[in-house]
Amino acid sequence: MHVCNVCEEKSRVGMSMTVNADDAMNAGTTATRGSATAPATGGTAAPATANRTGAGTGIGSVPAQEARGLESVVAAQSRLGAVDGTAGTLHYAGYSIDDLATQASFEEVLYLLLYGELPAPGQLNGLRAELAAAQDDREALALFATLPVTGAPIDALRTAVSALAQLDPRAEDVTPENARRTGVRLAALMSVALAAVERRAHGQPPVPPRPDLGHAANFLSMLHGAAPTATATRALNTYLVLLAEHSLNASTFAARVAIGAGADTYAALTAAIATLKGDAHGGANRRAAEMLREIGTPARVESFVEEALSSHRRLMGIGHRIYKTRDPRATHLETLAHDLAEETGRRDTYDVARRLEGVAGAHPYYQQRRLYPNVEFFSAPVLAGLGFRPELMPAVFALSRIAGWTAHIMEQLADNRLIRPAARYIGPAPRSFVSLSERGE
Predict the structure, then answer these.
(1) pTM
(2) What pLDDT, in 10s, does the model give residues 78-110?
(3) Annotated domain spans of the chain
């Protein structure tokens, strides 16, 4: 077994991490702020407070600097994800996302993020065996059969992750190695839970996992009840690779905050899933899919864009807090969406997305603000091409990001400290208490 780099040494040195606040900050009719890419130098944030009183109130201390949404604030150091929003590049532990998307399996990327190196064949087989063993859990399967199916699938997934802690006698072991074990366990069981919930929502019985299939193919098999095509397997595998890690996005930050407070890995991952649901983060793929479905045909795209601008409506999936060029992940997703459309013959969502990118890309409003498709824009036609309804899409995102979340939790545990930003007090100045009888009617 490869020795975990995070467990071996504390993460005091490495690539600087930026606080993006969300993974896919959609922009539309309001101008976005400038690039949030952190400076390449320096790995620690400025002191949180200065020794001076609040802004004219006489209460509290004033933060030395303010950054709305923590934009451009460097809050940690990491060896995991390097995002360059100006160049439009993304690397995992030094490896280009372009190479990983075209050559690696999700299991290889999971191993890379957890251990810092790509696995040798024996190490990869060991991880696959660990994933398969984790899915053979009767208690967990019984739990999944009790999950409500009337709400959003990501809500059921969040509940499942929280409840699985009560079936794990080591849940409160907050060591990096146990975080790794927990993350692998949940990477395996989250796909089983989500497939079971989605099938039950449509009146279908759960399909057992197949240990002979890879991670992506296994999920498709459990969801649809049949072995997937090679095109579908490649599409989902690449999607999982592309979304596995993205620096200090909102959900990853939430996980680190929970760990910094002394919570266990299950609690941190529950917080991460809850954060991922937001429409400014993982929920954007659902909203992008709904928007593309609303447009309906390529012929309606131009009028839809003009209506969106006049009504101050965002184009979901266009614009990003970090990237000021085309999201590097979108290029791969566009290819996958095309291939799925060709195989299935269901072209509507893909054709509308292509036309929308062209119209928005040629419009002065979006050009001037450097608003380009983000990862969610072409995630929508890919996931739709795989037969996923829009409500399911944010939860599928979680099946990928569990890799990055777990790796960041391990880094946080290796050099843990409570994450406690300051706030500038802007309330009333000091005043005297007035008794109830003297406050009037």
Answers:
(1) 0.85
(2) 999 999 988 989 999 999 999 999 999 999 999
(3) 1-48+62-423
Report the C-alpha gap between 390 and 253 in whole angstroms: 25
Nearest to 44 by CA among 11, 22, 6, 73: 73
Give Cα 219 distance to the centre of its chain.
Answer: 18
One of 1.10.40.50, 1.10.580.10, 3.40.50.720, 3.30.450.40 is the CATH number of 1-48+62-423, namely 1.10.580.10
Tell me what the mean pLDDT of segment 29-51 comes to: 35
pLDDT tens digits, 143-181: 999 999 999 999 999 999 999 999 999 999 999 999 999
pLDDT tens by residue, 284-337: 999 999 999 999 999 999 999 999 999 988 888 887 777 778 889 999 999 999
The residue assigned the tokens 């996302």 is 97
3-state SS, one letter per residue, for 391-417: HHHHHHHHHHHHHHHHHHHHHHHHCCC
Nearest to 325 by CA among 369, 282, 359: 369
What secondary structure does DSSP assign to 240-259, as a single string?
HHHTS--SB-HHHHHHHHHH
Query: 63 in helix, strand or coil?
Result: strand
3-state secondary structure of 286: helix
Residue 84 belongs to what H/E stretch? strand 81-84
| Residue with the two structure tokens 């739990």 | 143
232: nearest Cα among 219, 243, 217, 218? 217
pLDDT at res. 20: 39
Distance from C-alpha of 279 to C-alpha of 353, rounded to nearest angstrom: 19
Residue corresponding to tokens 């009719």 = 29
pLDDT digits (tens, 9 = 90+) for 112-125: 999 999 999 999 99
| Cα 345 to Cα 149: distance, rounded to the nearest angstrom | 30
- Starting at the edge strand found earlier in the chain, the sheet holding 95-96 runs 81-84, 89-92, 95-96
- Cα–Cα dist 148/332, whole Å: 35
